[in-house]
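Why do we bother with holo predictions? Because pocket geometry can differ from the apo form. Keep that in mind while you read this record for arginine.
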Amino acid sequence: MMTTANPAHPPKTSDRLWGGGYDEATHPLVQQLNASIGFDCRLAVFDIIGSVAHATMLRDQGILPAADHVAIVAGLQGILADVEAGRFVWSVAREDVHMNIEAELRDRIGDPAGRLHTARSRNDQVALDERLYLRATLATIISDLARLVDVLSDLGRRYAAWPMPGYTHLQRAQPVTLGHHLLAHAEAFLRDGSRLCDLLVRMDACPLGSGALAGTTLPIDRAKTAQLLGFAGVTHNSLDAVADRDHLVEALAAASLGMLHLSRIGEELVLFSTAEFGFVRLTDAFTTGSSLMPQKKNPDMAELLRGKSGRVVGDLVGLLVALKGLPLAYNKDLQEDKEPLFDALDTWAACLQVTADMLAAARWNRQGLLEALDRGFLLATDLADELVRCGVPFRTAHEQIAELVADCVRHRTTFAAMGPAAIAQRLGVPQAGIALALDVEHSLALRDLPGAPHPKRVRAEGVRTRRLAAKLQQQAARWLAPCPAEGMLRA
Ligand code: ARG
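The structure, written out:
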């Protein structure tokens, strides 16, 4: 197949690539509402990678002349260079990223550009671009999660033996260690990472070749395009492939849950850094001053972990509602998927990075944690357990210790002030066991079972979470590896 530029048919200069059958100009607001270029321009690199793969497959199938392929790839390389240098001028009249790039290619290389969209629609094109964007972005978020888990793993081991109050209902409950507490958050972030790994596998199919909705009559090779784009295979139903946004919903659901996890740690940092708790000091890089009160150092970043979680949940809900009730296949409503997608993932990534750095820099106050253990009868359960060891049924032990606590409260005293001798005498058990039960270090040392805060167990779990973080980093690297089409583009 040969092409030569035909001077009788100069390149179309209309910006509307679909303008062929239109007599009447569109309403002025149509362009404003219809255009997505203001936000989908960030898909440009993925759109261009997709076009290189598509053009290469068309050439290999004999649908696109080799010379046109060369011109198209070179033209796209030039466009990508301009986009990445921030020189590319996006046009609202050209509506979206797909038409901006195609029209610009036509301006630059002329006729060969007209063959690029053979056997392709913006519907399968945008479905592809979003999958490529999601693959790259989720991979970097997996890497961010891994870094955060890594930071928590180091802290978990460093503070494995620092006793602190554990809370239920935000009331002092039983002793744990700071390391145990920090590693609790690491568990949640590891689950967030594995959720994204699952999703990346589930969405690993190439939608290109689905056309507008019904495939194409031309002899394309979908498997070839998929291979050039680094997908494991192709999607199996053209209608579904152009209408499916499940992976975006899953990503935003994962982002919402991930942000909830961050909001919980954020709330704790806000509380624990107050003068009332005095457990931790957030360093200056993560706090801000007040314009009025000279003494203030406000934990804005920790607060924003809470605040921004609501916004990401809003992104998820917005997307879900946009998708609800859409008939097959493509509908323009689907264009509304992008802003929540970008917003949620940008927010999540930034919050993960700031959390890792803020935690790595935070200064924990060992004395403050120990003082909080003095009040609140955190060893009441340990005393009841000691009675159990002496043969008392647990329910009876619970009652006896509850009465002991009530008496202490009445007399404004503590277990420590009362002393093991008096307590042992009142409970009618040997003093040695009571003395041990009132010792925080001993309490922690007895908690020597999987998942419990014995310092040795905490250290071992910190080693485990660090290993899992390294595995997540490997997963991220795997999904970030450039596909063959990107290799051709950047060659
Ligand atoms: N900008 C569009 C979107 O984001 C691309 C697909 C447009 N397809 C169409 N048939 N109008 O959804």
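The domain at 28-115 is CATH 1.10.275.10 (Fumarase C; Chain B, domain 1).
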